[in-house]
Amino acid sequence: MARVTHVKKAQQRYRTVPVLDDEGKPKRxxxxxKDGTQKTTKRGTPIFMTVTMADKxxxxxxxxxDYCHKTIEVGTSFKHISPRSGPxxxxxxxxxxxxxxxxxxxxxxxxxxxxxQISHDFWQEIDGVESTDDVQGALDxxxxxxxxxxxxxREGASNIEEGFDxxxxxxxxxxxxxxxxxxxxxxxSSADVPEPEACTECDGTHEVECPTCDGxxxxxxxxxxxxxxxxxxxxxxxxxxxxxxxxxxxxSLQDSLTIVDECPV
Length: 265
Hints:
The chain is α+β, with helices and mostly antiparallel strands. 31% of the residues lie in helices and 15% in strands. The protein folds into three domains: 5-106, no CATH class; 111-195 and 248-261; 198-244, no CATH class.
């Protein structure tokens, strides 16, 4: 993962220009090794580094947050990363401190990053499911994303074989990865989804004894305002309108659907 650097206060930036020597030429300084000798190229040419400075007559625009797309004003806190590879390799990315940090798939296209995104999206969708059909839909969606990755690996293997006009160790490895991903996708799609159970607080009736009147419907010989004299109130233990323990069921999914996080490659 790319290292996130936090900055308390953004400073005004200026264009960097070379420092000139007495003759008006860019000033250079030798690049030294730890042993005190100067570094050289493979051909033995000494390596120098141009000395630069900030030209305060040439201010640069402030950074822009790549999350909310608003300017990071001077004096405000922000964070930045500089991915070494992937679609943003070598480019600095900035965000306000208050904005969410980067997920790995936002700056990397590696297999591990994309698998992390599939897992993240699945659990985000599971968080608000109301029925087993919703869960199955989320599983099928995750499985399709996994199969898409498998297809990409097969295409990569095919391209390598066409280029060399024969299978290679790399192409065979990609084919093996594709096979494992497809098997995993089938396992994800066919995972057992537990059924919601009746709420233990109300036994599925969605009603519990009124705590204000202790279930008799009266408070000082008057109808209880909390339950309108009925002696019962709606169960608020986390069950749905049918008395099913929907909250507990969602929590149980975290344990029963770990297959989505168990990538074999």
